[in-house]
Write a structure and sequence with these properties.
Blueprint lengths: L2 H7 L10 H30 L4 H21 L10 H16 L3 E4 L2 E7 L2 E3 L1 H19 L7 H21 L3 H18 L3 H20 L2 H11 L10 H13 L23 H34 L3 H25 L17 H18 L9 E2 L2 E2 L2 H11 L3 H12 L1
Antiparallel strand pairs: 1-2, 2-3, 4-5
Length: 413
């Protein structure tokens, strides 16, 4: 077979093994989440649903589905998502629009869910992954023009800004913050001009201040957060009880299932599950949890550095930042370092939408970690060639071990 025919046929590449360490960490985190959801929800499940294991059963099903989805997606070549970039982004955008124009299911004062029978879908969770895939696709495509404001900067800010506005309309300030951070991180990694990024960051900060100051309930919550002791029975009740959880846990915690703050802390099994972990496992438990997410981010960055093309690099960085930023904000909110944001703790908090989106993202990251076997891939004119074509190119160019051996033998004669 000629080199040209190998290119035109573009055979499926042989894929190597995925990052086993990362997969093991995530599986352990899924199991840990099921245990902590049960511990944090047993009182509410008993009182409201007359079934102490109500949330446990559902979370176990979600975790099993998430594991299966992650495994399946880890075997799908991530390049296959390229032609699906706009359908995915468009579909998620439509769902977000539906959730804010009257079709959204309201919970906790926010219309973030779409009800499909007994299933509640949270489009803003999927929007984070959809934005990462789109940014990776677009930034790779515009690699030579990324320093241009009109081509490399503005279109990405407009798309991210539109999704952020939809998040704010739900309202979901935390989700909007994550989208903004994702966008700036990937633009920076892609090589956008620092001056443009700083200017856009200043405008984003001004917009955030405006969104808080001129939205009554956000401003009231902010003031209550600054004066938590005075508002511990009303607007600051939730963050105050979360802080009490960490205080009760001290160094080693009270033990799993022995915490008392589940009696007082709203959303203990969802947004504030880190507070229950702090109470039951103490400072050491929170330190261990932070270490786990640090490992996830570190492995993700390693995968990005070893990825075979820019598309994979951008996706890996985006997913790593997504997990790291969301975990950091969630834990910081639980400790009252940040005001309440409404973000879940990846792989740990109760909820099907969050788990399945996180599993999808992790599956894609594990797919990127799979290296093409043997000679791998060769880049020609900015494109990655399939492994078979790369092997033929290397052999014909005289860089294979066999070619080098023949050349040395000829020189010796």
């Amino acid at each position: 077979m000629s080199f040209l025919s190998a290119l035109t046929r573009a055979p499926r590449r042989e894929r190597g093994a995925m990052d086993v360490v990362l997969a093991a960490v995530v599986i352990a985190l899924l199991g840990f989440g099921v245990v902590m959801v049960y511990s944090a929800s047993v009182i509410e499940a008993t009182v409201v649903f007359r079934d102490p294991q109500y949330f446990l059963k559902r979370q176990a099903v979600y975790a099993g589905a998430a594991f299966a989805l992650m495994l399946v997606m880890s075997h799908i070549d991530y390049h296959r998502y390229r032609p699906l970039t706009y359908p995915i982004l468009g579909g998620v955008t439509v769902l977000m629009i539906l959730s804010v124009i009257g079709f959204g299911h309201t919970g906790g004062g926010a219309a973030r869910w779409l009800a499909v029978g007994p299933i509640h879908i949270q489009p803003s969770e999927a929007a984070k992954l959809a934005l990462v895939l789109w940014l990776a696709y677009s930034l790779e495509k515009k690699r030579d023009k990324v320093k241009s404001f009109s081509i490399g900067m503005l279109p990405h800010l407009i798309m991210a800004g539109f999704l952020m506005i939809l998040c704010l309309k739900q309202p979901d300030f935390g989700g909007a913050s994550v989208l903004l951070f994702l966008t700036f991180t990937l633009l920076f990694v892609a090589g956008a001009r620092l001056g443009y990024l700083l200017g856009a960051a200043m405008l984003g900060a001004l917009f955030a201040v405006w969104a808080v100051r001129f939205t009554a309930y956000r401003w009231e919550r902010m003031l209550a957060w600054f004066n938590m002791a005075e508002h511990r029975q009303d607007l600051a009740y939730q963050p105050f009880q979360a802080v009490m959880s960490f205080g009760s846990g001290q160094t080693a915690g009270m033990g799993v299932g022995k915490g008392l703050q589940v009696l007082y802390l709203p959303e203990a099994h969802t947004d504030f599950i880190a507070a229950i972990i702090g109470e039951e496992l103490g400072f050491l438990g929170i330190l261990g949890l932070c270490s786990v997410f640090l490992v996830i981010v570190a492995r993700g960055v390693k995968i990005a550095l070893e990825a075979e093309d820019e598309y994979g690099q951008y996706i890996a960085i985006g997913i790593s930042v997504l997990f790291g930023a969301q975990a950091l904000i969630n834990i910081a909110v639980a400790m009252s370092i940040f005001p309440t944001k409404g973000l879940t703790l990846p792989f740990v908090s109760y909820g099907g939408s969050s788990l399945l989106v996180c599993a999808s993202a992790m599956g894609i990251l594990l797919s990127i970690s799979r290296k093409s076997e043997q000679l791998g891939n060769v880049r020609v004119a900015g494109d990655t060639l399939p492994a078979e074509a790369s092997a033929m190119l290397v052999t014909e160019a005289g860089f294979s071990p066999e070619s080098k051996a023949r050349r040395r033998a000829a020189e010796a004669v």
